[in-house]
Amino acid sequence: MSLLQFLRILWARRWLTVITALSTVVGALIAILLVPPSYEASSRVMLNTLKPDPVTGQILSTVSSRTYEANEIELIKDYGIVGKAVDQLGWANNPAYIEQYQSTRNQTIDIRRWLSQRIIDHTKVTPVNGTNILEISYRATTAQEARAMADALRNNYLDTSLENRRREATRLADWFTRQAQEEQGLLNAADEAKTKYERENGIVMQADDTDVDTARLRALSSQGSGGAPMVAPMPVMTSQASIQLAQLDAMIAQAAQNLGPNHPQMIELRARRATLAQVAAQDNASARASQALAANAAGSGAGAMQRAVDMQTARVIAKRDKIQRLNQLSAEVKLRRDQYTKSITRVAELRQEAAIADTGITPLGDAVEPRTPVFPNKPLILGGSSALGLALGVLLSLLIEFFGRRVRSLEDLESSFGIPTLAVITGPAKSNYPNSKSARGVFPAWLRRRPLARA
Asked: Using alpha carbons only, what angle is made at residue 66 by residues 62 and 72, rounded to the nearest 5 degrees?
């Protein structure tokens, strides 16, 4: 079928197409008039997933933030939050809603649950692309109802989130408190067992988990680790007299270059040297005696130190089993103390979290009352119905033509019989009748290419 044949068919059945298009448009207009309008109001909240928690200081990872966002979306549409919104707005006592509820056949649930399910069906929570903002949208028959419910859902969501966080923190704090009390009892029992064992065996454990005998042995070992002290020999002429004697020898050597041996000055210098030499000899003798006494005393002290170390070592070895048992008791006390400290610390953190007023969610203003309904969208419905009517009209025209094929032109005749046309006989003109149409007025000029006249 050529494009010209297709256009001839549409033109011949143009009224069917027009009637079909008008019918769909009229149906759309009736639907617009009968269907009540729907208004949609939106309220937004921002999830503070990028900021650290004010109590724990933790920051959610990318995967955790996605899970958290999905949980919050489902939480907003939960019956607990929606039911609070119903109570807050007083819809369960509204006569109009009561009448609608009573007209329903399914009354197995109460009106609060019925209204909550209705609100859930008309609520949409969507994340804003590229942000951590959630948009809470509610669709209702009036703009006031849509705005009120959007704000109510947001406010109850914030209150419920804070309440859940506090309740969970309080529950965990109570549990850790009970654990801390049990651990404190175990700590006291372990400490008493350690103290009793120390009293029975005469062993005292110091603050660094070392018993007194072992600590004393370490101290003695560190003192005697250097061995017996070595006494250096007395250096020659270290006394004041020795220093003066050396200076006097230098003066005598210098004077001998200019003076003779019998010079009075030389004789006096030699006399002075003899006197200083006696004094220096006495000082050196005293120093050597003192060094000998110090060496003897050091030798006797090293022997006593070694004997003390040996005695203390024997005492520690004799109490090795008891000390090992005491170390075990001390380790248990330390473990119980660490557990108790961690539990107490966790209780303090949870008590602080239970008293916090930050939910980690920031409201972003109140919902705005919509001015125009989102449904029905009159331009969209009318345009769509017109396009649909035209498409249906064209389809019906083609179907009718397919089941009742007619010859409308020379092309149709040739395509039907498959034989060439020898001649075309045109009908008589009707121009003699002023009130009648001519044969050329049946089709427009662009469709009258080689028309087939009726005999």
From this structure: 140
How many C-beta atoms lie closer than 10 Å to residue 440's C-beta? 13
**Contact at 8 Å (CB) between 416 and 59?**
no
CA distance 429 to 438: 6
**How far, rounded to the nearest angstrom, does the alpha carbon of residue 24 sit from its chain's CA centroid?**
54
Instruction: Give the span between the Cα atoms of 368 and 377, in whole angstroms.
Output: 20
* Cα angle, residue 436 at apex, residues 432 and 437 outer, rounded to 5°: 105
Q: What is the layout of strands, in order, in the sheet containing 361-363?
A: 123-127, 133-140, 39-47, 361-363
Task: Specify the 3-state DSSP secondary structure of 296.
Answer: helix
Distance CA 39, CA 372 (A): 7
Q: Token pair of 111, please?
A: 């009106």
Q: 3-class DSSP state for residue 399?
A: helix
Q: CA-CA-CA-CA torsion for 364, 369, 375, 378, nearest 10 degrees?
A: -120
As to burial, measured by CB atoms within 10 angstroms (0-12 exposed, 13-18 middle, 19+ buried), residue 139 is buried
Pairing of strands 361-363, 123-127: unpaired
What does 37-88 look like in DSSP terms, one character per residue?
A: PBEEEEEEEEE--SSPPTTT-----HHHHHHHHHHHHHHHTSHHHHHHHHHH
Reduced to 3 states (helix: H, G, I; strand: E, B; else coil), residue 361 is: strand
The single-letter DSSP state of residue 375 is B
In 212-371, which residue ranges form alpha helices assigned H by DSSP? Answer: 212-224, 240-255, 264-318, 320-354
Specify the DSSP class assigned to residue 236. T
Helices (H), 129-263: 143-201, 212-224, 240-255
* Identity of the residue numbered 347: V
Residue among 60, 183, 148 at smallest CA distance from 138: 148
Distances 397 to 1, 17, 407, 446 between C-alpha atoms, Å: 15, 7, 15, 20
pLDDT in tens, the chain (455 residues): 677 777 878 888 889 889 998 999 999 888 888 888 899 999 999 998 877 776 666 777 777 788 888 999 999 999 999 999 999 999 999 998 888 888 876 667 889 999 999 999 999 999 999 888 999 999 998 999 999 999 999 999 999 999 998 999 999 999 999 999 999 999 999 888 888 887 887 776 666 666 666 776 677 777 655 544 444 444 444 556 677 677 777 777 777 777 777 766 777 777 767 776 776 776 676 666 666 655 555 555 666 767 777 776 777 777 778 778 888 888 898 899 999 999 999 999 888 888 887 778 889 888 998 888 888 888 888 899 899 999 998 999 888 887 877 776 767 666 666 677 777 776 665 544 444 444 444 445 545 444 444 43
